[in-house]
Amino acid sequence: MKADLLFTGSELLTGLVENTNAGYLSRRLGGAGIQVREQRVLPDDLQAIAAAMERSLCLSDVVIVTGGLGPTDDDLTREAAAYCLRRKLRPDARQMQILEFFFQERGLEMPEANRKQALVIEGSTPLDNPRGTAPGALIETEGKLLFLLPGPPLEMQPMFEEAVLPLLRGRARDDFFLVKTLKCTGLGESQLAAAVKELGRWDNPSLSLAARGMEVHLQLKAQGETAAVEELIAAASHRLRRALRDYLYGEDEDTLAAVVSRLLIESGQTLALAESCSGGLLADMITDVPGSSRFFKGGLVAYSLAAKEASLGLDRTFLEREGAVSEWTARAMASAARRKLDATIGVGITGVAGPDTDLDGRPLGLVYIAIDNKDRVSCREMHFRGIRRTVKIRAAQAALTMLWRRVRPEV
Amino acid sequence: MKADLLFTGSELLTGLVENTNAGYLSRRLGGAGIQVREQRVLPDDLQAIAAAMERSLCLSDVVIVTGGLGPTDDDLTREAAAYCLRRKLRPDARQMQILEFFFQERGLEMPEANRKQALVIEGSTPLDNPRGTAPGALIETEGKLLFLLPGPPLEMQPMFEEAVLPLLRGRARDDFFLVKTLKCTGLGESQLAAAVKELGRWDNPSLSLAARGMEVHLQLKAQGETAAVEELIAAASHRLRRALRDYLYGEDEDTLAAVVSRLLIESGQTLALAESCSGGLLADMITDVPGSSRFFKGGLVAYSLAAKEASLGLDRTFLEREGAVSEWTARAMASAARRKLDATIGVGITGVAGPDTDLDGRPLGLVYIAIDNKDRVSCREMHFRGIRRTVKIRAAQAALTMLWRRVRPEV
């Protein structure tokens, strides 16, 4: 089954708003057996939107349009769909009630402009939007499905998960196209490419690789009958998991921070950080995981010698002898964080994020990462290329990778 | 002048790779007077790419294609362009030399597959790519311009800036379409909409608004002759700057963190942070700014009572009496961070990021932010809606907004 994705909104064409719906919908559809044939971003123009709908309804089984369901004059998706399908738009009493209730509940009067959101295309099924005023719609036409969804991700995503995906899952049978992503860390893209090549040919499922900072994501794609495809993907995943067990940490929506967090909670460990060049990014990644307060004691972002001295209690003479960026400083930071914040594991990161070499002449991209888990302190020296943000991301991901290796169960 | 953007690559259609090129190119073109008419993401299919090129060359003056210039079998952009334009692909001696040198310099042997990257479309101008093996190309055809650029942003962006944009700037004359973004913080989207409505009608330039966390970005768009359009945008920017001076902090590629950093450096201030619910995100945002080590002393991510006690030196009895999330705790955190890290300004953030209410029953999204600049400690109580990541972003942005107001020169 094939799908076309159409995104309306001039603000996407000027780059005012990033089109995060494209990646989200593509990943979710691929995981449900539906192949995205094309994505298009269209201006707020009735003729252009209607023409694109018509073409997509010819070429694909499912067409999903996001955006353009609001109350303003440049919201034209409903009108374009009616025009394209030669159907009428009619005011709907139930939709009007829902709209009125939405405003009432918030103690607001409904603006006149919003009345047009209660217009419904003949023969369509409205899709409820509890998070906003724009109802969605499903229209069946000549065996094809046209979905109109709101543009804001916080409204679009729940509607897609609750009303669109279950319906599509039920229909995707023959010509099933399944995508699964496996996520690796701790080895480069070319090493990984060589490793998977040794496992044999990758035709069905096919295999693609993409580097994301220190991680490499593998994507399996298989096509055919539902049961056969699911089996192909499962067998290939199993083969990759076994061959790449030192690198493969998760799949699809997993993040390394979430996987590490789960392992820390399961093993009853607690974590403290001392970050220099990563500047708080590692703490930010860990505290994005719901429940991180169960194991994360806290972190110190020591961006100056004075901060390393005052907040970590490191000795100024020691720091001046070893330098702010050195193996021994990283080790001392890890241990000081662990002791100071009473955790079972301490991590220390120090390096040169750029844009220039540091005061002691150490090169841009040089980073030391140390882990202290009471029994043992280990440290790695890394050299990262790239701009400031890239060095920060790689340093934080490398630290997570070392943590993952330290806390995951022996295999 | 109008442009179509075509992005090739099945990995964009499965969501393995995010299409960051779309936003980047759209913003840069809009700032140079060129209107993006449509964006399309196409599969690695020669016929599909060639058909899209043909259509776009009819409808727009400029067509930019990214991706598909690599050495593998599914890199088909060069071939599709040759097919679409009915021109020959010929091996080019200079391109072959450049390729051979690229590998030589890295001590590698050139794989056989890469030879096809030295194929050049008859009558095209190759565009050098010092950062990778895929050369770009410019093809003029019937008064239209077709650019082929590599897919990876780190190769695409410099080629676009150096070879594409200067050429387009020289040509964009009549039918000039200029976009300018102005960035506001500290007021909501609907308040801002009301404020700009009071300033009069917005036809040319037109005005769009988009909320980004606590910020609202305004976008001006004007169309017409070059000089007239530039004047229209300048006059409108000036009017908005004056009317919104308490909210408007920057434009286009400015970030609030960078603006605050510049003000701190100019005024000779130094900064220390104590973050709880924002979990290091504010430190991360500040350390993304090059040169932040000149004013940023460091931060403490106090995610547990023990951390607030140990690293900030706060009194346990005080914390237990006031609660981890309270105005007085935020104030104490700001002051402790400032004193402990010897800075002139301290910021304290404490709140409930979710997913649940905190142990003391305080509601999800309640955040206290305090600033201590020696003379004065102020604190604000905020209530944010949204998931964990949203609350973190809003808390960090709100703190930056308070900092901006404290350090910017009186107007």
Write the layout of secondary structure elements.
Two copies of one chain form a homodimer.
Chain A: E1 2-8, H1 10-13, H2 20-30, E2 35-42, H3 46-59, E3 62-66, H4 77-85, E4 89-91, H5 93-105, E5 119-121, E6 125-127, E7 136-141, E8 144-149, H6 153-171, E9 176-185, H7 189-198, E10 206-212, E11 215-224, H8 226-243, E12 248-251, H9 256-266, E13 271-275, H10 281-287, E14 296-302, H11 305-312, H12 316-322, H13 327-340, E15 345-351, E16 366-372, E17 377-383, H14 388-407
Parallel strand pairs in A: 1-2, 1-3, 3-8, 13-14, 13-15
Antiparallel strand pairs in A: 4-5, 6-7, 7-8, 9-11, 9-12, 10-11, 15-16, 16-17
Helix pairs in contact in A: 2-6, 3-4, 9-14
Global outline of chain A:
globular
> What would CATH call the class of the largest domain in chain A?
Alpha Beta
Please tally the β strands of chain A and state the result: 17
The number of helical runs of chain A is: 14
- Structural class, from secondary structure content of chain A? alpha/beta
Number of spatially distinct domains of chain A: 3
Q: Which two chains have the most extensive interface, and how many residues on each?
A: A-B, 73 and 73 residues
Question: What share of residues of chain A is helical?
Answer: 40-55%
- Report how far apart the termini of chain A are: 39 Å
- The percentage of residues in β strands of chain A lies in 25-35%
Major sheet characteristics of chain A? 6 strands, mixed
Strand order of the largest sheet of chain A: 2-1-3-8-7-6
Mean pLDDT level of chain A:
92
| CATH homologous superfamily descriptor of the largest domain in chain A | MoaB/Mog-like domain
Q: In the CATH classification, which architecture of the largest domain in chain A applies?
A: 3-Layer(aba) Sandwich
